[in-house]
């Protein structure tokens, strides 16, 4: 089940209340300091009979929100990566100084930009319009986060990909720039894509520019939704009440990657994943389900 921490709660008291042990809760959630939990913090509580022991750990991927008491060492250990990967992928100047509320990209092996460019280009050259959803996910969707980790080291290559004849390649290149969300060169490149002949590319460029404007004012925790009629559920279950969010709705992510506590199946198998967000304009909070192969519905 999903439980929101209340005033005076400790992991020990929560574990006793739900007839589990503290380690069960630690195994189900990214928690760096077991002695520090916060009112309003959502925690996955495993069933006492461990029937849902295969639930994914809640809190990380593709991003993680830093909490008081966190360290890069702990975050890396919790999410099966390395401190060096986190430092490089987030351009961290002082690894001993990370601030609560910061959104970190969870990075693994960061590629050589030329190799990533060649993969994107050659795949688009050969299979444009013929790629399966799994190919698009594995090469291009996942690749957007790799380009984000590369940051300015990848800009020369992304600029070239904006001119690729395949609309799918241009779409995900623009999405990559929206994830980077920083710099005059990014803004200039995206502005040029508003003239693209493909409507989907123009649309994603418009959303990416919107996010960049918001990031300048608020910070990188703000995202904008992709796709019409995303459902924002009151609870992380499809039978829960919901409201529809129009495309481009700005949201602040409160917690990434919350697996369905009821074990709901996702669109292509596996457990359905949600992200816990707050709508910027109204303050309403809720759970956005991921689509496809565990894909977030935000830039």
Provide a brief overview of the structure.
This protein is α+β, with helices and mostly antiparallel strands and 299 residues long.
Would you mind describing this structure in some detail?
With 299 residues, this protein is of the alpha+beta class. It folds into 3 domains: 1-53, Membrane-bound Lytic Murein Transglycosylase D, Chain A; 113-220, Leucine-rich Repeat Variant (Alpha Horseshoe); 224-289, SH3 type barrels (Roll). The chain is 37% helix and 15% strand. The chain contains 10 helices and 10 strands. The strands form 4 sheets. It has a 4-stranded antiparallel β-sheet with strand order 5-8-9-10. Strands 1-2 form a two-stranded antiparallel sheet. A two-stranded antiparallel sheet has the order 3-4. The chain starts with a strand and ends in a 10-residue tail after the last strand. The model has no long low-confidence stretch (mean pLDDT 94).
């Amino acid at each position: 089940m999903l439980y929101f921490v209340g005033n005076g709660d400790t992991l020990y008291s929560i574990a006793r209340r739900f007839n589990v042990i503290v380690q069960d809760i630690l195994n189900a959630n990214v928690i760096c300091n077991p002695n520090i939990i916060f009112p309003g913090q959502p925690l996955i509580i495993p069933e006492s009979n461990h029937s849902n022991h295969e639930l994914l750990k809640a809190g990380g991927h593709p991003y993680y929100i830093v909490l008081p008491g966190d360290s890069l060492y702990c975050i890396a250990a919790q999410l099966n990566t390395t401190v060096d990967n986190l430092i490089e992928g987030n351009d961290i100047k002082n690894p001993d100084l990370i601030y609560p509320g910061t959104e970190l990209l969870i990075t693994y092996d960061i590629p050589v930009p030329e190799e990533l460019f060649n993969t994107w280009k050659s795949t688009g050259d050969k299979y444009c319009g013929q790629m399966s959803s799994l190919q698009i996910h594995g090469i291009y969707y996942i690749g957007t986060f790799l380009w984000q980790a590369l940051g300015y080291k990848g800009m020369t290559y992304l600029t070239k990909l904006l001119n690729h004849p395949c609309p799918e390649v241009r779409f995900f290149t623009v999405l990559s720039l929206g994830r980077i969300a920083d710099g005059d060169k990014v803004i200039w490149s995206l502005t040029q894509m508003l003239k693209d002949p493909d409507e989907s590319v123009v649309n994603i460029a418009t959303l990416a520019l919107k996010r960049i404007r918001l990031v300048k004012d608020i910070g990188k925790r703000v995202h904008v939704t992709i796709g019409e009629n995303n459902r924002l559920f009151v609870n992380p279950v499809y039978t829960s009440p919901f409201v529809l969010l129009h495309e481009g709705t700005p949201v602040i992510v409160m917690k990434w990657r919350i697996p369905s506590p009821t074990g709901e199946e996702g669109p292509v198998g596996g457990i359905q994943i949600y992200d816990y967000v707050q709508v910027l304009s109204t303050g309403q909070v809720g759970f956005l389900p991921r689509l496809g192969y565990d894909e977030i519905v935000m830039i």
